[in-house]
Amino acid sequence: MVSGEKGRLLRWWFFFLLLLSPLAALFVNLLNDNLGADPAKVIVKELGFWAITLLWLTLSVTPGIKLLGWRWLMSFRRMLGLYTFFYAVLHLLSFATFLVGWRWDILLTELTKRPYIVVGSLALLLLIPLTFTSTKAMQRRLGKRWKKLHFLIYPISLLAMLHFIWQIRSDFGQQLIFAILLAILLGYRLYLNRRS
Amino acid sequence: MSKRLIREALNIPSSEITSESIYKQRRRLIQAAMSAAILPAFTYPSFARAAGYEIPDDLPRYPGPAWLRQKLASAVRNPDLSVSDELAPYYHIITHNNFYEFGTDKRDPARYAQNFKTDPWKVEISGEVAKPGNYNLEDILAPHALEDRVYRLRCVEAWSMVIPWLGFPLADLIKRFEPTSKAKYVHFTTILDKEQMSEQRSSFGTIDWPYVEGLRMDEAMNPLTLMAVGVYGNALPPQNGAPLRLVVPWKYGFKSIKSIVRIHFSETMPETSWNVTAPSEYGFYANVNPAVDHPRWSQATERRLPSSLLSPNIVDTLPFNGYADQVAHLYKGMDLAKWF
């Protein structure tokens, strides 16, 4: 690890750009006509994939520190959380724009009647308070309540998983991998909780 | 997949690709020969010559086996059974496919089906027919002239395309094999070939391969029901279900089974793949119906491809995909919400 202020800054930029790269790749592929005959669906799907991947990575920070001793991970937990929100918002916006064309009649029934969209929207909605209380100042101001509020990440992850499972047509390979990873991540919390 | 790279990606040997000039030359020759003959004018008075299709030079063409080319080239447009909606571009038709045997992403079949062997091909005709047997595709097709028909295709996932098929009425094929009075349903089966079809090897798939579809006899005999061997003036690409597929334009796309190796006649309703996999989501009939939603999404509208990103091409879905005049009578008195 590079040490000192300069090293920290370098590392910060490295992770910032790394987590932005899926979006950049999507954009470049779109401009190069590389997303196939129906880019709309591919974009929505990819953004959703990165939102849930980043959520799982956010949940991996604590086990990473405790099991591997990677204390530096802690300084990137906030960035991972904010990127989760960022990709989740883009996911919803691209759905509403590219697939529904902001047809309010369709949007309204989709957001209220379709179980997987209801569940996904709820997960996104719950991410909002976490996003706006993510600063150090808010953390100080909320004190103990901050931690309680941010426990919301657990129900959010379950909602996101359900939202993902509801996309299954016939092959559930990808969903199975994410479910196993989530079981490990949440199981580890239960284990910690029981031990203390 | 980039259009520029598609030929490489699709891995078509250049010897298999008919150049545009030769294709047009052949077409002109055949057209000249046909117009000299009196056949088209007399036998099919309402038929017009099939339109020349615009296929960009950087996209692969699929000429099909030598024995099929003459047949494909002499296909004539059936204007009475064609819609006038704007055609989907060739690129969309050959790269956006649901053919789960080759992968569940729409782009997978175009990527992974290119080396799929579709000639020679046999089709088993079995069950309640006077002339069962295992026939060469060439012999099955021999007596049938091909028509060029422009149909709407509505996927159950709420996207749609307008596609010019080359094929012949399934009814004509069925009559030749003389079904018995017990034949109430037709079953179709896609090839089972785990070597060539990766998804048939998947441990996480829920479809019990091979893929099976079916129709009630009166649906199969309807003049709209087509057996297709070509698309866009050429042979079917493997990703579109070569060498022989079904096209039932008033039903959701999954009914139009691809790469058929068996046609079976029976007294009982077939257990069709999607219906067995998720009975609450996919019915046996699967008629396009804007009033009956899929449990997970609405069927009231569809995205007609190609669709622009910023103003998606959303159109209202029509009952029976706009073919109500020709087929609604088949379902008279049936509760379509129950028999979805």
Describe the structure.
The complex is a heterodimer of chains A (about 200) and B (about 350). By secondary structure, chain A is mainly α. Chain A has one domain (about 40-195). In chain A, about 85% of the residues lie in helices and about 0% in strands. Chain A has nine helices and no strands. By secondary structure, chain B is α+β, with helices and mostly antiparallel strands. Chain B has a single domain, classed as Oxidoreductase, molybdopterin-binding domain (Sulfite Oxidase, Chain A, domain 2). In chain B, strands 1, 2, 5, 6, 9, 10, 11, 13 and 14 form a nine-stranded mixed β-sheet that branches. A five-stranded mixed β-sheet of chain B has the order 4-3-12-7-8. The chains are: A mainly alpha (about 200), B alpha+beta (about 350). The interface between A and B is medium-sized, with 30 and 34 residues.
Helix count of chain A?
9
Order of helices and strands of chain B: HHHEHEHHEEHEEHEEHEEEEHEEH
Structural category of chain A is mainly alpha
Low-confidence stretches of chain A: none
What is Rg of chain B?
19 Å
Q: How many domains of chain B, as an integer?
A: 1
- In round numbers, the mean pLDDT of chain A is 95
Strand proportion of chain A? under 5%
Q: Which chain pair has the greatest contact?
A: A-B, 30 and 34 residues
Averaged pLDDT of chain B, please?
Answer: 90
